[in-house]
From TrEMBL:
InterPro entries: AtLOH3-like. It comes from Solanum commersonii. The lineage of its organism: Eukaryota, Viridiplantae, Streptophyta, Embryophyta, Tracheophyta. This is DUF4371 domain-containing protein.
Length: 163
Protein backbone atom coordinates (compact mmCIF):
# COMPACT_ATOMS: atom_id res chain seq x y z
CA UNK A 1 0.00 0.00 0.00
CA UNK A 2 1.18 3.50 -0.87
CA UNK A 3 -0.71 4.78 2.17
CA UNK A 4 1.22 2.44 4.44
CA UNK A 5 4.48 4.03 3.30
CA UNK A 6 2.96 7.48 3.85
CA UNK A 7 1.92 6.36 7.32
CA UNK A 8 5.45 5.12 8.03
CA UNK A 9 6.95 8.35 6.69
CA UNK A 10 4.60 10.36 8.90
CA UNK A 11 5.54 8.29 11.94
CA UNK A 12 9.25 8.71 11.10
CA UNK A 13 8.92 12.49 10.85
CA UNK A 14 7.07 12.63 14.15
CA UNK A 15 9.66 10.34 15.80
CA UNK A 16 12.44 12.60 14.53
CA UNK A 17 10.79 15.36 16.57
CA UNK A 18 10.22 13.06 19.56
CA UNK A 19 6.48 12.83 18.90
CA UNK A 20 4.05 9.99 18.34
CA UNK A 21 0.69 10.00 16.60
CA UNK A 22 -0.98 10.05 20.01
CA UNK A 23 0.83 13.35 20.74
CA UNK A 24 -0.53 15.01 17.63
CA UNK A 25 -3.92 16.64 17.99
CA UNK A 26 -4.63 17.08 14.28
CA UNK A 27 -3.39 16.59 10.76
CA UNK A 28 -4.40 18.46 7.64
CA UNK A 29 -4.56 17.03 4.17
CA UNK A 30 -5.57 18.39 0.80
CA UNK A 31 -8.10 15.74 -0.17
CA UNK A 32 -5.80 13.69 -2.35
CA UNK A 33 -7.30 10.28 -3.03
CA UNK A 34 -4.60 8.37 -1.19
CA UNK A 35 -5.35 10.41 1.92
CA UNK A 36 -9.14 10.14 1.91
CA UNK A 37 -9.74 6.43 1.85
CA UNK A 38 -11.78 5.32 4.82
CA UNK A 39 -10.80 1.69 4.20
CA UNK A 40 -7.24 1.96 2.93
CA UNK A 41 -6.10 5.56 3.01
CA UNK A 42 -3.60 7.30 5.22
CA UNK A 43 -6.49 8.82 7.15
CA UNK A 44 -7.64 5.34 8.21
CA UNK A 45 -4.16 4.26 9.31
CA UNK A 46 -3.62 7.39 11.37
CA UNK A 47 -7.09 7.12 12.94
CA UNK A 48 -6.30 3.52 13.97
CA UNK A 49 -3.18 4.75 15.71
CA UNK A 50 -4.71 7.82 17.33
CA UNK A 51 -8.43 8.29 17.92
CA UNK A 52 -7.81 11.93 18.90
CA UNK A 53 -6.51 12.80 15.42
CA UNK A 54 -8.91 14.91 13.43
CA UNK A 55 -8.72 15.89 9.80
CA UNK A 56 -9.61 19.08 8.01
CA UNK A 57 -10.49 18.60 4.37
CA UNK A 58 -9.06 21.44 2.28
CA UNK A 59 -7.66 23.68 4.98
CA UNK A 60 -7.86 26.56 2.51
CA UNK A 61 -11.60 25.94 2.29
CA UNK A 62 -11.77 26.69 6.01
CA UNK A 63 -9.90 29.94 5.34
CA UNK A 64 -12.41 30.76 2.61
CA UNK A 65 -15.28 30.21 5.06
CA UNK A 66 -13.59 32.58 7.51
CA UNK A 67 -13.15 35.16 4.75
CA UNK A 68 -16.83 34.86 3.85
CA UNK A 69 -17.82 35.27 7.51
CA UNK A 70 -15.58 38.33 7.92
CA UNK A 71 -16.81 39.83 4.65
CA UNK A 72 -20.40 39.58 5.91
CA UNK A 73 -19.47 41.55 9.02
CA UNK A 74 -17.20 44.10 7.32
CA UNK A 75 -18.64 45.72 4.21
CA UNK A 76 -15.22 46.82 2.92
CA UNK A 77 -13.84 43.27 3.03
CA UNK A 78 -16.95 41.99 1.25
CA UNK A 79 -16.56 44.65 -1.44
CA UNK A 80 -12.87 43.79 -1.83
CA UNK A 81 -13.63 40.08 -2.24
CA UNK A 82 -16.39 40.85 -4.75
CA UNK A 83 -14.12 43.22 -6.69
CA UNK A 84 -11.29 40.70 -6.82
CA UNK A 85 -13.71 37.98 -7.90
CA UNK A 86 -15.05 40.21 -10.68
CA UNK A 87 -11.54 41.15 -11.77
CA UNK A 88 -10.52 37.48 -11.90
CA UNK A 89 -13.61 36.68 -13.99
CA UNK A 90 -12.91 39.54 -16.42
CA UNK A 91 -9.26 38.55 -16.68
CA UNK A 92 -10.22 34.93 -17.28
CA UNK A 93 -12.53 35.99 -20.14
CA UNK A 94 -9.80 38.25 -21.53
CA UNK A 95 -7.34 35.36 -21.39
CA UNK A 96 -9.81 33.14 -23.24
CA UNK A 97 -10.23 35.86 -25.88
CA UNK A 98 -6.46 36.25 -26.19
CA UNK A 99 -6.12 32.50 -26.56
CA UNK A 100 -8.35 32.72 -29.63
CA UNK A 101 -6.08 35.33 -31.21
CA UNK A 102 -2.76 34.10 -32.50
CA UNK A 103 -0.02 35.95 -30.62
CA UNK A 104 3.73 35.82 -30.81
CA UNK A 105 4.86 33.63 -27.97
CA UNK A 106 8.13 32.34 -26.73
CA UNK A 107 10.38 32.05 -23.74
CA UNK A 108 10.43 35.25 -21.71
CA UNK A 109 7.66 37.04 -23.57
CA UNK A 110 4.95 38.35 -21.24
CA UNK A 111 5.46 35.44 -18.88
CA UNK A 112 6.57 37.14 -15.67
CA UNK A 113 3.12 37.18 -14.11
CA UNK A 114 0.27 34.76 -14.45
CA UNK A 115 -3.28 34.23 -13.30
CA UNK A 116 -4.87 30.96 -12.37
CA UNK A 117 -8.33 29.97 -13.55
CA UNK A 118 -10.66 29.79 -10.57
CA UNK A 119 -12.04 26.40 -11.54
CA UNK A 120 -8.60 24.85 -11.89
CA UNK A 121 -7.30 25.30 -8.36
CA UNK A 122 -8.00 25.27 -4.67
CA UNK A 123 -8.60 28.67 -3.06
CA UNK A 124 -5.18 28.67 -1.44
CA UNK A 125 -3.56 28.66 -4.86
CA UNK A 126 -4.94 32.09 -5.63
CA UNK A 127 -2.37 33.80 -3.41
CA UNK A 128 -0.10 34.11 -6.46
CA UNK A 129 -2.95 35.58 -8.52
CA UNK A 130 -3.78 38.12 -5.83
CA UNK A 131 -0.12 39.12 -5.62
CA UNK A 132 0.07 39.47 -9.39
CA UNK A 133 -3.13 41.53 -9.46
CA UNK A 134 -1.66 43.88 -6.87
CA UNK A 135 1.58 44.13 -8.89
CA UNK A 136 -0.19 45.04 -12.13
CA UNK A 137 -3.28 46.71 -10.68
CA UNK A 138 -2.68 50.07 -12.40
CA UNK A 139 -2.35 48.31 -15.76
CA UNK A 140 -5.51 46.30 -15.09
CA UNK A 141 -7.44 49.50 -14.36
CA UNK A 142 -6.08 51.09 -17.56
CA UNK A 143 -7.15 48.06 -19.63
CA UNK A 144 -10.60 47.97 -18.02
CA UNK A 145 -11.02 51.72 -18.61
CA UNK A 146 -10.03 51.23 -22.25
CA UNK A 147 -12.55 48.39 -22.56
CA UNK A 148 -15.31 50.63 -21.19
CA UNK A 149 -14.38 53.46 -23.57
CA UNK A 150 -14.20 51.09 -26.54
CA UNK A 151 -17.52 49.45 -25.60
CA UNK A 152 -19.21 52.86 -25.41
CA UNK A 153 -17.66 53.87 -28.72
CA UNK A 154 -18.83 50.60 -30.30
CA UNK A 155 -22.38 51.10 -28.97
CA UNK A 156 -22.45 54.64 -30.41
CA UNK A 157 -21.22 53.36 -33.77
CA UNK A 158 -23.90 50.66 -33.75
CA UNK A 159 -26.57 53.23 -32.87
CA UNK A 160 -25.45 55.55 -35.72
CA UNK A 161 -25.50 52.68 -38.22
CA UNK A 162 -29.17 51.99 -37.46
CA UNK A 163 -30.18 55.56 -38.28
Amino acid sequence: YYCLSLREATIDVLAHHSLTLSNVCGQCYDGARNMQGELGGLKMFIRQESRSAHFVHYFTHQLQLILVMVSKKCVQVGELVLSISNILNVLEYLQEALDMVELETGRGLNQELGLIKTGDTHWGSHYKSFGNIISIFDSIVDVLDALVVNARRWKLEQAHRHF
